[in-house]
Amino acid sequence: MIKGAINPKLTMLGVLPTMVDRTKVSRESLAELNEKYGEMVFETSISKSVEAAKSSVSRVPLCMTDSKLGTEYERLAMEVLSRC
């Protein structure tokens, strides 16, 4: 809709699953995303976590901590760069 109404040159780099956890709902949602968008879905997904909020409060970037969420964002950055 945005492409048609605002920017016909707009392209989509990918679909990023976020707030992913180990629940059945998350697994089903990921399956639906993969079914609908296929290769557009990033292999990397971002977990549901309070680590981002803690990082903001402590003013320490996630990439400077030994956190699962920081690692996920680093993997995402590498995946984005590989698609560009």
Structure described in brief:
The protein has 84 residues and is mostly helical.
Q: What fraction of the residues are assigned to beta strands by DSSP?
A: under 5%
What is the domain total for the residues?
1
* Total E-strand runs: 0
| Helix/strand/pairing category | mainly alpha
H and E string = HHHH
Overview of this protein structure:
50% of the residues lie in helices and 0% in strands. The protein has 84 residues and is mainly alpha-helical. The protein has one domain (14-83).
Ordered list of secondary-structure elements with their pairings:
Blueprint: H1 2-5, H2 24-37, H3 51-58, H4 68-83
Looking at this protein, list some descriptive labels.
84 residues; mainly alpha; 4 helices
